[in-house]
Amino acid sequence: MQNTPAVEIAGLVKRYGAKTAVDGLDLRIERGTVTAVLGPNGAGKTTTIETCEGYRRPDAGTVRVLGLDPVREAAELRPRIGVMLQAGGVYPGARAVEMLRHTAKLHAHPLDVDALVERLGLASCGRTTYRRLSGGQQQRLALAMAVVGRPELVFLDEPTAGLDPQARHATWELVRDLRRDGATVVVTTHYMDEAEQLADAVNIVDHGRVIATGSPEELCRGGAESSLHFQGPAGLDLGALAKVLPDGASALELAPGNYRVEAPMDPKLVATVTAWCAEVGVLPEKLTVQRRSLEDVFLELTGRDLRS
Ligand SMILES: Nc1ncnc2c1ncn2[C@@H]1O[C@H](COP(=O)(O)OP(=O)(O)OP(=O)(O)O)[C@@H](O)[C@H]1O
């Protein structure tokens, strides 16, 4: 059984009335990995994850989680997985840390509750009821509840949405520790830096399907490895710039006044671009050479911005 993937989805379809939220999605998540499911709002990430958790029944296709059917074998599966939903899932009148202690007691080998409370910055809200916690505290409590039982497989749905940088990093550290302890972690996110930082494998989802899959490095390979970005007045004559660039290079105005030059990157190319700017009397501001990111990959695959 240990050889089966943590999650195996084939041809998943899920509809809400006339809306097809998931449209023939295939996904395989290996055990012991952190896997990101990355995509824009409405791509079908939450629906897919909720189907894995047994909260939604597929209209077509098969879903196996730790080798089990999440609907028919829910009783066997539930104790082995941890779930952090986008919308709480916690009784609003419950006291935060008591609730966590109670949850810990339901498991054979829970994490140390005090240490978990400390590292997630929840120590000051020991007796506060869930409804009185701030949004960020509620989110961190939901994360703690998902992991306190040391589940084999943890689903985190946008765990860091709206968190401050410190809490985001604490969350990332916790995810890394879970993997170190052998757990499989599935994270949905539309923050590409989160996927790049955390994930061994990334699945890019759009319109209810996985459109690309691989490690962040694999996905960012292919195409130009890096690009040069600068800002200047809108509407520069990129046709004229293209004439001085090497063969195969391209220049693009991503948004008014925001330019990207893609070409094999070397010091000469930077000099060529800045020389051209000098010639046309433009000061290139915020000139940077950037490694190709998952955001660029998504843009190339779909022609749209990840957060549009
Ligand atoms: N209960 C529901 N009833 C009707 N439509 C729904 C329901 N839940 C989701 N949808 C629709 O299904 C599509 C996929 O939604 P889903 O929440 O799975 O996407 P998502 O990728 O998780 O988005 P987000 O990043 O915004 O959470 C969206 O168009 C959404 O409006």
TrEMBL record:
Subcellular location: Cell membrane
Protein EC: 7.6.2.2
GO cellular component: plasma membrane
Family indicated by similarity: Belongs to the ABC transporter superfamily. Drug exporter-1 (DrugE1) (TC 3.A.1.105) family.
This protein's record includes keyword Repressor: no
SUPFAM superfamilies xrefs: P-loop containing nucleoside triphosphate hydrolases (SSF52540)
Domain of life according to the entry: Bacteria
Keyword hit for Cell membrane: yes
The ABC transporter domain, residue ranges: 7-232
Organism: Kitasatospora kifunensis
Main EC class the enzyme belongs to: translocase
GO biological process: response to antibiotic
Protein name according to UniProt: ABC-type xenobiotic transporter
Lineage start: Bacteria, Bacillati, Actinomycetota, Actinomycetes, Kitasatosporales
CDD domains: ABC_DR_subfamily_A
